[in-house]
Every structure is written in structure tokens, then in C-alpha cells.
Design brief:
Elements lengths: L5 H9 L10 H6 L11 H7 L1 H4 L2 E9 L2 E4 L13 E2 L9 E5 L4 E4 L7 E8 L6 H12 L4 H4 L3 H19 L8 H8 L7 E4 L2 E4 L15 H13 L8
Antiparallel strand pairs: 1-2, 1-6, 2-5, 3-6, 4-5, 7-8
Helix pairs in contact: 5-7, 7-9
Length: 239
């Protein structure tokens, strides 16, 4: 008699109904959603939040598989590791090699279609991309498409933008800051309730979502928490 792979069996039973409407029956009954998420690229985040991506640099030419041959001189701010986006490139493609003499850029992924290309390169993101990718990893393990459905991309974007905003607040003092400036920039801050212009001022009631905790510290977090109250509504049965 063959041995039963109980781990595999349980993974099938508990998987999201979004992944498999037949095997996800316990998930559906309990309203506890788990499962796998599709890949999410930092370029998707930049497209939904252009200000985090910074100013892009355009390069035109032709692409064949993983080699982009560009027209004219390559801008001086292009470097290895930067993300590059175009209609005929797969999301998440980066620059792996640059040959100034041959006027070629080697890409981390083959183009979806060869031919002419007009690509935008993210040369000046507001946040180091390795930091954003860590937030993307965290979001991918916290926001499940099985529950969020068509709103999953928006939820991912808000989750990442929330953490990115708090990261920028904590790092606002800069690398050459004094110890006091570094401490001040890392202190938890409340929500402003008053605005002043000279001698004239007014107080406003901050928007506080009950139970949202630190999500209240950014508009992105407030939007995500508001959406979560709707998306996560319903009875949960756990045993």
C-alpha cells in the first residue's frame, strides 16, 4: 500500500478557493484564506505610484531576446541593476550588462517580442529598490489574492506604499545626519491636528480608523485598512 502524503493532502484541502474551487472547501467554509499569490513586480508598483519610481530615462532602439541595441549615445545615468520597462519587455526586467562600444544593453529576461523598442529606465527611484523589494515580499505574504480578488493589485500597492512612506520618514535625516537628527527622524510621530499660516490657524480632526493601529499613520494605510474591513467581512469559523 502506498504511503499517504498527508502534508500534500492538507495543502490541497486548505488552499485558496481562488487557486482551486474544488479543493478549497475548508477555506471557503472557514473564511480563513491562504494560498499562493501571482508574482508582483516593483515595476507594477511604480506604474501605480509614479512618484516612488522617480524620473525615468528613455532609451530607444531594437531588442532581440535579451539584447537591446540602443540608438545614439547612452545616457550617463544608466547602470547595471536598474529596472527597465517597455511594452515588449516582461515586468521586472533589469539591466545586467552594458557595452558602450557595441551600444548594447543586456537584459535579465528575454523580450516578449523582438523589434523596435522605446524603454523607460528607472534611474532615480525615491527608495533603494532592494528596500522596496523587501516590502513587496512582506506584502506578498500578507495580502492574499484568494481574499482580495480583483482588488489584490491595489491592496499590494497600498501596503507597499504605506511601508515605503514610513521608511522615508525614518530616513529623512540622511546619511550625514548627527546622532540627534537620526534619533529624531526615527521617533514615532502622531497625526497633525492643527495647521498655521502666520497668526492664523485652525485645528482639524484627524481620521482615525478604529483598530487600524499604525496603518493610521499614512493615507495609504488608512485606505488599505478601510478596504480590508469590507474585503475581510464575514463570519470566520476556526477550529
Amino acid at each position: 500500500m502506498a504511503n499517504i502524503d498527508y502534508n500534500f493532502l492538507l495543502s490541497q484541502i486548505w488552499r485558496s478557493a481562488y487557486d482551486d474551487p474544488i479543493f478549497g472547501f475548508i477555506n471557503g467554509a472557514s473564511n480563513i484564506i491562504v494560498g499562493n499569490n501571482p508574482p508582483y513586480s516593483i515595476v507594477e508598483f511604480f506604474k501605480m505610484n509614479p512618484k516612488f519610481g522617480g524620473t525615468t530615462t528613455n532609451v530607444t532602439g531594437t531588442v532581440a531576446s535579451t539584447v537591446l541595441t540602443y540608438n545614439g549615445d547612452l545616457p550617463t545615468n544608466i547602470s547595471i541593476g536598474q529596472y527597465i520597462d517597455a511594452n515588449n519587455l516582461n515586468l521586472g526586467t533589469t539591466i545586467t550588462e552594458i557595452d558602450i562600444n557595441a551600444k548594447t544593453i543586456t537584459l535579465s529576461q528575454a523580450a516578449s517580442n523582438d523589434g523596435k523598442i522605446s524603454a523607460n529606465i528607472y534611474t532615480s527611484p525615491l527608495i533603494p529598490t532592494f528596500v522596496l523589494n523587501s516590502f513587496i515580499y512582506l506584502a506578498s505574504n500578507s495580502i492574499f489574492i484568494g481574499r482580495w480578488g480583483e482588488a489584490w493589485n491595489e491592496a499590494m500597492s497600498l501596503f507597499i506604499a504605506h511601508y515605503a512612506t514610513l521608511w522615508m520618514q525614518a530616513e529623512a535625516a540622511g546619511p550625514n545626519s548627527t546622532a540627534g537628527q537620526a534619533v529624531a527622524s526615527g521617533l514615532a510621530l502622531g497625526i497633525d491636528t492643527a495647521q498655521h499660516a502666520g497668526d492664523v490657524g485652525y485645528a482639524s480632526q484627524p481620521v482615525i480608523i478604529d483598530g487600524a493601529g499604525a496603518w493610521n499613520l499614512t493615507l495609504y494605510g488608512q485606505l488599505l485598512a478601510t478596504m480590508a474591513k469590507t474585503v475581510g467581512s464575514g463570519m470566520i469559523l476556526a477550529w
